[in-house]
Input
Amino acid sequence: MSQPLLEVEDLQVRLRTPRGTAAVVNGLSYSVGEGETVAVVGESGSGKSVSVLALLGLLPEGVATVTGRALLRGEDLLTMPPERLRRVRGRGVGMVFQDPMTSLNPVLTIGRQLVEGIRAHGEVSKADARRRAAELLGEVGLPDPQGALDRYPHELSGGMRQRVVIAIALGNSPSLLIADEATTALDVTVQAQIIDLVERLQADHGTGVVWITHDLGVVAGIADRVLVVYGGRCVEDGTVDDVLERPAHPYTRGLLGALPDLTQPAVDGAPPDLATVPGTPPAPTDLPPGCVFWPRCPVRADPRCETEQPPLAVVGQGRSGHVGPSGLPHRAATWCTETGSPEEGRS
Ligand SMILES: Nc1ncnc2c1ncn2[C@@H]1O[C@H](COP(=O)(O)OP(=O)(O)OP(=O)(O)O)[C@@H](O)[C@H]1O
Ligand code: SF4
Ligand SMILES: [Mg+2]
Output
């Protein structure tokens, strides 16, 4: 297998808070191949946004401690000199944050922000960049793209601003796109249009995508692989079919609305949104010992649940087609799943 575009290994993030140190991301590892889309799902507060902000050096200085490795084409984003990281953020990586206003400069017109992004990427005249900017705004479904170029962010609605941020992120054909709830606030038609646009970008430029969302319809529509995160840990990852149709971990089954009957497949076609799992996630300042999910787990039975962190193990051995584009098998934190082999992950 060729080197993945992005390889995240044992990412850990600690944040200093008034209530003590918050262990927000706890050993997250995943990879994204060229042209591959990895969806990251999990409840609110599970560390999804913090994990991607950490990759890009965008967490507040003096508050966050980040360890691990995050190799973008073999180069570690976490140890890169700040100037180089700024350049990578400007050119190689497109980002759409949960709050569009954090990405837009309020004192510059939409057109200027788009044109600057497009021209940063290569030799493009101002006039061509402006034409391309209007085209991009049309492609993300903004009405009157030409007129929008001369408007300021505050003159647009929240959904329009989100589309502008998406247009800016896609404008310089990034090799990696990180989208955090990028289409959540948009109506389904616009959402579908944007997903089409991302897929075209992937086909044309081999862009790898990390797509954070709680919308399982979007996951089913866009993802090759799915990473399920709980308490800042991956509890399951696999191809979109494996995770949505044959979820192995009790938490994933809960999110898919399949609890408490764990003997049945979770879904007949993905539900539109994550289900509510009874109970609440742990505070990152007060993670339970052992399996982070045990206080809410309806199938906890093993005494190790309360004392040991379950390792990730391959599940569903022998099934055909369960290896995704990155070459990774379907894995789940396990001594809890019927099909899993707990000993496999423990070395
Ligand atoms: N700057 C910060 N300082 C202190 N704690 C923070 C900071 N940013 C996030 N957190 C905490 O880190 C945890 C994870 O937050 P994060 O924003 O990554 O969650 P999320 O999975 O993206 O949730 P959502 O689905 O609501 O966007 C939360 O408990 C949050 O309160
Ligand atoms: S390790 Fe135990 S508590 Fe955790 S998910 Fe598995 S069965 Fe549940
Ligand atoms: Mg978030």
User: Anything to note?
Assistant: The longest strand covers residues 20-32. The radius of gyration is 21 Å. The CA atoms of residues 123 and 261 lie 58 Å apart. The pocket of iron/sulfur cluster (ligand 2) is lined by residues 250, 291, 293-294, 297, 299-300, 302, 305, 310, 335-336 (CB under 6 Å).
